[in-house]
Write a structure and sequence with these properties.
By secondary structure, the chain is mainly alpha-helical. The chain is 49% helix and 7% strand. Helix 2 crosses helix 3.
Length: 117
């Protein structure tokens, strides 16, 4: 048994894909799933956590994978730690989201669903 996951299923040779017996489609997280990811991945003891607008973060992060959100959280927490306030804020998280989106646009990656074969 072999299992693998990819965000780039369209890059595989069709002959290879035909030989895979089972494909499971896993869509990108919806609004509620993204909201929950933000709430779980940002530590609730982080300074500023209670002031974060998770509705806004979920809305702005449409099209992002769970991995994209995790990268955004790590970048936001690092930026918050390096700031004079040392507090995570919506502004800092939104900046981290935009950085991830910009990076993906520059390399030509769009918000596609995950595939597991």
């Amino acid at each position: 048994i072999v299992a693998f996951a990819t965000n780039f299923a369209c890059n595989y040779d069709p002959a290879f894909v035909r030989r895979i017996l089972k494909h499971i489609y896993i869509p990108l997280p919806d609004f509620e799933a993204r909201k929950k990811l933000w709430q779980i991945k940002i530590p609730n003891n982080a300074p500023g956590y209670k002031q974060l607008n998770f509705e806004e973060l979920s809305e702005i992060s449409e099209g992002m994978s769970g991995g994209d959100i995790l990268v955004s959280v790590k970048n936001a927490l690092f930026d918050a730690a390096c700031s004079t306030e040392q507090t995570v804020s919506n502004e800092i998280v939104l900046s981290a989201i935009n950085a991830v989106k910009t990076s993906k646009e520059k390399i030509g990656v769009t918000g596609v669903a995950h595939g597991i074969a």
